[in-house]
Fold these 4 entries.
Entry 1:
Amino acid sequence: MSTQAVPLASLDARSGEERRSRRIAILLMCVTMACYTATDSSAKFLAPHLPLWQIVWARYLGATLFALCLANPIKHPNMLRPERLGLQLVRSLFLLTSTILSFIAVRYLQLAETTAIFFALPLAIALAAGPILGEWVGPRRFAAILVGFTGVLVVVRPWTGTFHPAMGLCVANVIVSAGYNMLTRVVAQRDRALTTLIYSTLVGAILLTPIVLTHWVAPDSLQVTAVMVFIGVVGAFAHWLLILAHARAPASILAPFTYTQLIWASLSGLVVFGDVPKPSTLAGAGIVVLAGLYLWWRERGT
């Protein structure tokens, strides 16, 4: 039996195409993180002008419209029929709670602070995966998790007089988001990705719409109106970019570039709000990022 050799030029072309695809995916991931920062910045800007529920509603409305356009449930009604409806609803409530906690926190804290604390999420997920999913971490990963949470303490500094209660909301957001991610992994085993995306935003939009309609507060300027529209559009755009990025490269390649959000958050806080990142925030963020990267590196090696 004979085998046909594959031309080296063909292999090089495919290899080059894969590298280009991954470079584009990395760029898309970095832009996605910038969009997430723009969402947080918009929420921080809108906080003195509009009620919290109206800001969150605008964010969810834009994402819901995007998800519905992408899935086209009129043509594909099965997209609205998850196999695990109960878990989808609970998961959506976790996400809504996370958004509310995040938007409250950014009103009182620097964007760099909230972002640095939220970077503890991969550590919380790794810790929670043991009792919930049976995916226990080894002693080295557990040590990295402890080091990462030490970095969170450096940012929060609960032992000082500068501690703000909103930092507690950030920590609560990490816990809630870890639960959200655990449920995401469970529903992903049975339901389509687009079905999960729809429920991620639709539930929050439905719950908030009656509150917004009965307690509507008119924006007090065109600028506020524009930012209210922007938060929905850029949030939806971030979802789209994230999907495109993961279509071009595996999550293991993209994961480290989520930490670029700290750069965007620091720049946005400085340029838009005049917030100079505190040394403790940068130091703590560095510890958290290094711990997260170590977990990622260990995960790739297994």
Entry 2:
Amino acid sequence: MIKTLPTSLFTSPVQQALSKRYRYAREQRQMGRVAATAYVILVVLAYSVLRLEGPAWRALRQKYAPWFAHIEQRPYKPADGLRYGLQASWLLIRRPIPLQDEGYLYRTLRAGGRKLARGRLWVHHALGTKTTPLFKNRFFSQDNQGAKTTPNAQSETKSASQIIFWLLGGSALFALSLLLITQPFGLAAQFVFVFLLWSAAMIIRRVPGRFSSLLLIVLSLTVSGRYIWWRYTSTLNWADSKDAMFGLILLSAETYSWIVLVLGYIQTAWPLRRPVASLPADTSLWPTVDLMIPTYNEDLSVVKPTVYAALGMDWPKDKLRIHLLDDGRRELFRDFAEEVGINYIIRPDGRHAKAGNLNHALTKTDGDLVAIFDCDHIPSRSFLQLTVGWFLKDEKLALVQTPHHFFSPDPFERNLGHFGKQPNENTLFYGLIQDGNDLWNAAFFCGSCAVLRREAVESIGGFAVETVTEDAHTALRLHRKGYNSAYLRIPMAAGLATESLSAHIGQRIRWARGMVQIFRTDNPLFGKGLTIFQRLCYLNAMVHFLAGIPRVIYLTAPLAFLLFHSYIIYAPALVIMLYVLPHMIHANLTNSIMQGAYRRTFWGEVYETVLSWYIARPTAVALLAPNKGTFNVTAKGGLIKEGYFDWKIATPYVVLALLNLLGFAFGIWRLIFGPNDEVITVVVTMLWVVYNLVILGGAVAVAAEARQTRHSHRVPAALPVDVRGADGRVYGATLSDYSESGVGLIRPTPLSE
């Protein structure tokens, strides 16, 4: 038996180590000469390429036996190398590997960035130009950077060297992306490509931190870009007019969805999570605030809690003025304002609805800042303490927006019975999208729970009145004027959600119409004053509401094949699956990682489906005639005394569900009597129909209105309290909920006599 390995090429210590490895392979692992020699060669290659002496590899060597138990319990065989590779790949995908240091990926990318910077210095040296910062730092002061801003330094940011660098880098990335997206693959190559990207995504998704989300976005854009390229170049049957017509209709919807996907990734790639800015200790430096509460037809019982909360705000009384703006001109409200000591403002006419009401109030007040709350939004005591600091830090700041939080269930939560169990429909916007907008200085005004600088609002002529969404339009004009905005993702006010599904849909119709009106009359893609990313963020906010028609197309598209035998995607079923499934999987995986805490994928589909039919017509009209449409006030504080099914709202979705059931029945008929070579295509299309039916079923279920008989909603709580009885005894209890009219107590026990 050979005990040593000829290693004259190596030094003595290395030769001894390799001989030891060889003897181990021959004696303990019972390998043959060829296998043992190959094993030693692999060890040499591994140590040459990998840092096997590092802590991560040492930990792997200590644990690898249990992971490869079916290989370790017997002598090596020639195919064991392949077995190790396949098993390792599977473990990387399926087995979560805990990271001892969550900053590892960040440090790795940072090191790569240093190498890129050194290469960039070499490029600049070769070009004979000066280097400039890659990014303009807008999040840290120059004091933190240890440098002073000079006119020369500012001019360098637009130097020729920076332009050359970005042109070269951007061109290289664009060329690489274009190659990956447009390169034609056969079936086997496409399978390997999508499998590798899926495997990479499965590994990356387990890595904590934002960089992993960025990598998932890159993978998703690559797969989705390849899919949309394939759709345009290989899947339209121009030889058949019916196929071409239905195919183009579906492709237009898919193109819209792809654009929204890309814009959404840009918008939410890196949420800013802005901290609170502290106020100076000297309260004489604090600005004066006009707090405005506009109202129109709401009950006084809805308005009172907001006014009382405003009166209790933690702000110097001589610097806070509270105004009730009553467009309903009601004596009861005037008397209430006089009773509590706030200003009561009315105007001679009701032109321009809420925007006109606010503009009239601006002429009657003179505070430095203007805080606005809808009459049902109850602010916290600390609202101004937490929001005003940023106005003192940034003289160009025009707006600080905070989330709209609701203490009552919306129609989805109440009718489906998952209030508090699933994220609210608004959570995605106020939890992620606005925070992402803030990175690009594109957070916009949402009509309430916000503070604005009076000087900035007056410089644009007051609140915008040309559209029915005065809030977003006002923010757009402020940004065009060069002002900044800020978003604090801290709920500091709570309001009432819409009481019924019809009221909820009516509110969303107004939002949709207004955003499309802005798109037509003040398109963010054109005009001066906006950065490219501000334009893209506003664009996504507007085109998002055009989703009604594409959603209806998706709900009816499979019927084109099942009922009319039209090939809407002119390709074999297997090829369709190799392109469609990766596109859907990567998009859903990436969005679930980024949006998981703010919206569940299934319920997001239900939300969008419920709204789709009703926003389709108003948005189409607004595109063609942007001046049409009126401001309708959303009803709050209503009651639903008896549960009922809203057939008027549900009818479109019942009809769509019946059409899909008809298509499913035709699919069964095609499976039995149709040609054998279409079986897979029919099955795939029927699965699409099943998915549509599940989503439509959820949409129909929301139309079953549940009872809502509370005038004042209970707010859940878990607070220890002491209760003193009429007899003087004190009881300890837990406060489970509270409202204006009462509280809920759990297990009171006597504490004293």
Entry 3:
Amino acid sequence: MAAGAAAGCGGKDRISALPDDIIWEIISDLPVTEAARSTALASRWRNIWPSTPLVLDDADLPEPTRIATVARILSGHPGPFRDVSLVNCRFGPQDQDHAAEWLRLLSAKGTRNLVLFNQPSQPPLRLPDDFIRCSSLKVLVLCSWTFPGEHLPGIFPNLRKLGLSWVSMTDQHFDHLLAACPFLEFLYFLHDRTLQRIHLRSQSLRFFLIGLSVMAEEVAVVDAPLLQRLCFDDLRCVGGRQYMRVRVARAPNLRELGYLDTGVHNLQIGDTVIKVQPNANYAMASPSTVVPGVKILAVKVNFGIFGQVKMLVSFLRCFPEVDTLHIESVLHDPSVAADEPTTEHHANFWQKISPVECLRSRVKKMVFHKFRWDRNEFEFLKFIARDVRELQSLLVLPDEETISSMDKVNEMIDKSECPRFRAWASRVFLVLPGVQKVLDYVKAFDITVDDPFL
């Protein structure tokens, strides 16, 4: 590198004449093996790489020598370690001592941001006690590890972001983790199979997400004054469990919530529980059953199940200040709907229902995901056209197997037999056939993204 620069500059090494801080930036942007080789370029460079905060991504290293190279770099570089990503160096049960040494080095040499994956198919290895006390870590992402069984003081005292996937943890350990991390702002769980009651008690937590996991018995926001975003998606029912309680006790700053699922979530606000009960009447809102701060709400509903339609209304009444609403239409299960009311019954329900505060006077933007143009979905849209006053745009993302072109969409609107709906649709409708949006976990964890569901 320096030799090439010198050859083009009359034999003078221009790069080595750069200030140290610029050279450090150059070194930190190089793949780690190239950065290490810079020590051979010139005498000026010999101390640059060892004095530059380490940036290590094992994806840059060739497979046959990857583990040996990582071991050599971790032991040879004096630190600090700025960004370390180890997603391809996997440990088996026989590698506990080897893994513990790497974690000791990562802790001792001031690692700031760490991504550490292990084989999900292997029994998870235990995190060493000295590692979980690491005070330099700001961002940590773990896959397939186990936290120590006992409650230890000083767990990640300066951690701000934590991502856990295939990590074994009891409810008590989760409570202790939140209590022991005074600066933790972002937390997500993926592929969790162990937590039963997730209680959020944190004075610092702002974002929480759980997805691709076994459905817990309860997710409760007990005391989280700064919590802004609460997301859950793709939670699986196992062991006979059919429902999960979502409880909101104290979350004065909650702004984005979803996906609430009308088929599996029981919503508790204060002492009032809105349950999934097919034959129950929908709940009316009262001051004790509302969360006034939520601005973006996402709800999944099967419009073929009348009980879920009523749950949708009950959920909406609990969030009177929502201005952006996401509705995802869940695929109809014929085995459940053998004795469901007729479409006319659904239409009669939407015609007689009393106004929903957020829909009538607040919602300005609505996104309808996986729209199939089912008659029951259409009755809901006619209710929206009749009752919503502030709506400025309705983005419809059709199910890709149902509607494939705008011509088909326009044909369906023209045949709606509802002139008011046709006029309304021409003004606010925006249909994007072939575009599918799902909850993006990276976006949901990004503070710069205003709407994690879009």
Entry 4:
Amino acid sequence: MAVLLQLLGANPLGGLVLAIIVPVVVVAFGTYVGVLMALQSFFDASSWQEATRPDDTEGES
């Protein structure tokens, strides 16, 4: 793994990938995981559709 990172760092395009694309992917993945955790903890839902679906039992007496 370290050899692959060294080879990418030696190539100018590989350096660009390491400097820009890798952090963007890490932040996007972290945001995705954070949103899923928030959905599960606040709404007891595992997807956005499940969290925003109107619940039929709220209005019934």
